[in-house]
Specification:
single chain, about 60 residues, mainly beta, three-stranded antiparallel beta sheet, two-stranded antiparallel ribbon, 5 strands, about 0% helix, about 50% strand, globular
Length: about 60
């Protein structure tokens, strides 16, 4: 999955820190072309997985 994610054309490093705050753009990688402006509220590490909680406007 990390190999599929690019940031401005550069592959995302595995385990990169996700900074809290706004200015995140959540983009659908398959299906319809959808982009949401989001705010990262919190990240939770569970085992080898990282769960990110975002808030998006209606």
């Amino acid at each position: 999955m990390a190999n599929d994610i690019t940031i401005k054309g550069v592959q995302a490093p595995k385990g990169a820190k996700m900074t809290k705050g706004n200015s995140w753009r959540l983009v659908a990688t398959k299906g319809k072309k959808r982009v949401f402006a989001g705010t990262l509220l919190q990240t939770i590490n569970i085992g080898g997985k990282r769960l990110a909680i975002f808030s998006v406007p209606k």
